[in-house]
Every structure is written in C-alpha cells, then in structure tokens.
C-alpha cells in the first residue's frame, strides 16, 4: 500500500519570505511524486513532479521540490512567496505510469501581505 | 492549452436516484480516471480506465458505480442508486501514456449533492 503524509494542516508565511510545504511518502518500489494546487472552487492544477533524475525539481509559478530518498520526503518550496500563492496544496504518490495516485490530506498555505 | 472539462459543475439529486457525471478528457490522452473528495477529506482514487476497460479500482468503487467511454470524446461515471454519503466533489483526470510524462491532468470537478 502507498501513503502520503502532509504533517501541517496550514502554513502561514509573509509575502516575500521563503515557503516550505512538507510531504513524506511511503510506497513500494520507485515513487512517482507530484504536487498539485487547488484554488477555491477550482480543480487540481499540476505544479511539478519527480519521476527520476535530479533530486531538485522545478515547476510552475516558481515552485520547486526536493526529493530525498533516505527521508522519503518531497517538500515543496518557493524562494519568495506571493499573496496569490495562497491555496490548498496536495502532495501525491503513484507507483507506475497509468496508476492510481494517493493523495495527502492537503496543506493550506496562507501568504499574508 | 488543452484541458479536461466536466459537466455539470453542480448536480443535486435525491437519494436512490441515478446520476451520470460527464467528462471530456484531453483529446490525445489514453488513460482516464475518476477521483472524489468528500468535503474536508482527502482526494480519493475511484477508478482508472484504459483501452475501454477498467485497469484499476478502489474499494470505494463498488457495484453502484460504473464507467463508460460511450464515444471518442466522453468519459462518464454513473452512480446507480445514490446514497447520502456519495455527496462529494468528483474529479475526472486523464494522462498520456504514450510519453514518459504520465502527469494526470484534472478537470474542475462536479459537486454532487445527495439529499
């Protein structure tokens, strides 16, 4: 079975400060790791993914994530937060292509001016 | 940019009624999925569909649920006899297996309310 944990229900950060949203995972075999963002009354928008290769993955809107195999983590980061980054962020893991994604519980990011 | 679309955006139904949720996946995608999100809870996988058959399903996807690709563009989720606990946001997603990307792209969702 695969699982994802997002230990923080909410992360508060001031605009212009760096942000980190944490994610740890459990999966047998090599993981496919994803971050999605959900704005109010909208669907899930893909931000970035790790399949293989470099541990630092760059994605949309200036976000990046670091894959750490020994810590089974895939934390989402951004050097300088914007108020418009305020949304619900979901980490997800899959085992293979075309496979089900297992989502974490989500972390609400609040960026204050 | 191509996107997944879903109709209706909001469906209200009476308990015991049948509902059909519709999705138009991205046109060149080969894998199709349904997920649901009960209010305040995690996004949960329901079913994946490839080559006109179910490739994987979760324990949630019982005999009350079915999926179909009735034509070359639509992908539907049918709930035969809705229960109160079926109230949720239902997301359709699609992915392109022909490349290594395999990113699942999600539609905006259909909010199902069972009264």
Question: What labels describe this entry?
Answer:
heterodimer, A: 113 residues, mainly beta, six-stranded mixed beta sheet, four-stranded antiparallel beta sheet, 12 strands, 51% strand, B: 115 residues, seven-stranded mixed beta sheet, 11 strands, 50% strand, globular
TL;DR?
Chain A is mainly β. Chain A has strands at residues 3-5, 10-14, 19-21, 24-26, 32-38, 44-50, 56-58, 64-68, 73-78, 87-94, 102-103, 107-112. In chain A, the strands form three sheets. In chain A, strands 2, 5, 6, 10, 11 and 12 form a six-stranded mixed beta sheet that branches. A four-stranded antiparallel beta sheet of chain A has the order 3-9-8-7, with no helix packed on it. A two-stranded antiparallel sheet of chain A has the order 1-4.
What does this structure look like?
- The complex is a heterodimer of chains A (113) and B (115).
- Chain A contains no helices and twelve strands.
- With 113 residues, chain A is mainly beta.
- The N and C termini of chain A lie far apart (41 Å).
- The model of chain A has no long low-confidence stretch (mean pLDDT 92).
- The model of chain B has no long low-confidence stretch (mean pLDDT 92).
- With 115 residues, chain B is mainly β.
- In chain B, strands 2, 4, 5, 6, 9, 10 and 11 form a seven-stranded mixed sheet that branches.
- Classes of the chains: A mainly beta (113), B mainly beta (115).
- Chains A and B meet through strand 5, strand 6, strand 10 and strand 11 of A and strand 4, strand 5, strand 9 and strand 10 of B.
